[in-house]
């Protein structure tokens, strides 16, 4: 192996280790922030949960706030990706059904992170910057125009796009944000994949019928 290949291999290994450590820290931080909130959490607790030295936490993120903001940004990024389902060229029923499933998939895979974000919102969203809020508003309004284009073309019933989005968000995020209540209603110790499938089918059926689209 020549030195150039060795350097690339070493670099790739370092990159993999860095990515693994960052993920380990973020996964641990989600649990700590969900249980204690931002103010109640500490770097020491995140380090203990991650089973990594405190020095590693500071090396990769620098501050507790940087970790928290990274997690917030990850949620917003995933939700923005889900909004990619809604494009004016698509069939409205397929697009809305795809969006519902994408949101529920995030809820299922990242329930604790969704709860962490919900807790942030309940406490006033102090770590949602003006830039974050502006981006959220811009992409939401962009997708509202997709709904409006479908309505103008007679492809779906005319409904208020703002409140349609609120209904879509609340129905898909409830399963994570109010996990205790959902499990109580299901009389189960956990929400299973089958539960999420039935949720997707039910929410999709009701939303599409409400928008004048075939279920």
3D architecture notes:
There is one protein chain. The chain has 215 residues and is mainly α. 79% of the residues lie in helices and 0% in strands. The chain is built from ten helices and no strands. It has helices spanning 3-40, 43-50, 54-61, 64-83, 92-109, 111-122, 130-152, 161-177, 179-186, 193-210. Helix 4 runs antiparallel to helix 5 (92-109) and helix 4 (64-83) packs parallel to helix 7. The chain is globular, with a radius of gyration of 21 Å. The termini are far apart. Residues 1-9 have low confidence and may be disordered.
Percent helix range: over 70%
Largest sheet: none
Low-pLDDT stretches are 1-9
Give the structural class: mainly alpha
Please count the beta strands (DSSP E, at least 2 residues each). 0
The percentage of residues in β strands lies in under 5%
Number of helices: 10
SSE order, one letter for each helix or strand:
HHHHHHHHHH
**Termini, distance in Å?**
60 Å
**C-alpha Rg (nearest Å):** 21 Å
What is the overall shape? globular
Mean pLDDT: 91
List keywords for this structure.
single chain; 215 residues; mainly alpha; 10 helices; 0% strand; globular; disordered N terminus
Summarize the structure.
The chain has 215 residues and is mostly helical.
Topology of helices and strands:
Layout: H1 3-40, H2 43-50, H3 54-61, H4 64-83, H5 92-109, H6 111-122, H7 130-152, H8 161-177, H9 179-186, H10 193-210
Helix pairs in contact: 1-2, 1-3, 1-4, 1-6, 2-3, 4-5, 4-7, 5-8, 5-10, 6-8, 8-10
